[in-house]
Structures are given as structure tokens and as C-alpha cells.
Amino acid sequence: MADENWVRVFGREDLxxxxxxxxxxxxxxxxxxxxxxxxxxxxNICTHGFASLSDGYLEDDEVECPLHGGRFxxxxxxxxxxxxxxxxxxxxxxxxxDDVEVLLPE
Length: 106
Fold this sequence. Notes:
The protein is mainly beta.
């Protein structure tokens, strides 16, 4: 759709499997994850405490907050381990050629 706001965040090879990166795009703080060659994106700020998830740990499809150890599934943003209780906002991700793109709200 012409009105969609897809933003290139980096090249596919720039984020190897098992890695994550935090990005600031406009007013959005986003974490992008490579889980076995599939890319996902969520808010980068933990819903339990103000911490950057990209400073935490990615294990399989879960990210652990560096502040209190809460965990979220990066595939759908759902909490996986307390004290995390509220889900993360997720963003659609696509790979176009060698570019990884995230769909941002208008």
C-alpha cells in the first residue's frame, strides 16, 4: 500500500542470527532481532522498567531485560518470565532484497 511507512533499518547481513540491535527512528525506540534468520521487531523499552531491551540478552526467541530479568517472546511481544507482565508492542518486518525494513505507525 502506498500509505504504509516501511523504513530500512539495515542490511540483512548486518545483524547475524542470534543478535539484536536497538534503533531510534523518529520518536520510536525499536529493537530488531534475528532469530535463526527470521527478523522480528518490538519496542526497545521494557514494559516493566525503563530499560533498553537491546542491552539485555537474546536466547532463542526470548529477550531478557537487563534491569530485572523479565523475559519477552520477540515473535509476538508476550511476557515469558516475571516480573514482565505487559506485552511489548511489535512491528511488522520484511526483507526486501538485502534490506531489512520495519513498518512504523504513521
